[in-house]
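thought: fold this chain, then report.
action: predict
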Amino acid sequence: MAARIGRRTGELSPAEQRVAEYLWKHPGMIVLSTAAELAELAGTSDATVVRTVKALGYSGLPELKRAVGHEVVSDTPAARLRQKVEQAGDDPASLADELLAESMERLAETRRLLAGPAFTAAVDLLAGADEVIGYGLGLSELPMRYLAMRLRRLGRRARSSAATGFRLADDLLPLAPGHLVVLNAPERLLPDMRTLVRHARAAGAGVLLLTESLGATLDSQVDVTLTAVHSPSRLTAEGLSATFLLDCLLLALAKRDPGAAAEHAELLATLRTRLAPGDQRSRRP
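observation:
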């Protein structure tokens, strides 16, 4: 970032130069702040902050945050979380605005990085799978449980797993050609995940990867990679971007056979009615 500022400072307006100087002197704040917060700290507008970031060659603030996050090696997740919590306002409106801003940034960047060919290929994998197995560890398991449930509601065979060690071995045994593994691994590639991917390939199963930073590491071992932007502060839901991508995939999948989607939705409503007679809520999706 410092090199970019040095090369392009002559091309910036006075207000943009002020923003660039603040970014250069306070790289740690870039990761922790929204555009509006950086604008207040630099004494300018959030529009000027965004223009400055783009003038420096970044697609937007999320890309700059990722680049600076790698450069500021002393900036740990725990330190980021602590500083972000200390900076947060005390009233409900300020807290809500803070979290909404970060959520919107993550979703907007995830949308920007969603390439058409990769998305279509991912939908093709889901549509052609005899069974889908979603895998994630910790909080990353939750979007995979959601995926499995939504796929079953579309009439497709699906399950999720968060098993590790010897329990994972049992879950891997049924993998076969025609199966698809959806791996949700935001940042860390753990030994269990490596084993999962290797065995899936050996068994002839497909692999769809949802990640922020493991694409370069696993690209040659998976069929499709979709980028889900992670939370730099850890204050917004870990699965936010991954769930957004899953909703996009599920909608695209349902559009390929709207009749089947409607049929299974009606069957689900009928089963709920039988389980809870007289409760109109049972017919809700």
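thought: worth noting. Residues 34 and 101 are 7 Å apart (CA to CA).
final: tokens above.
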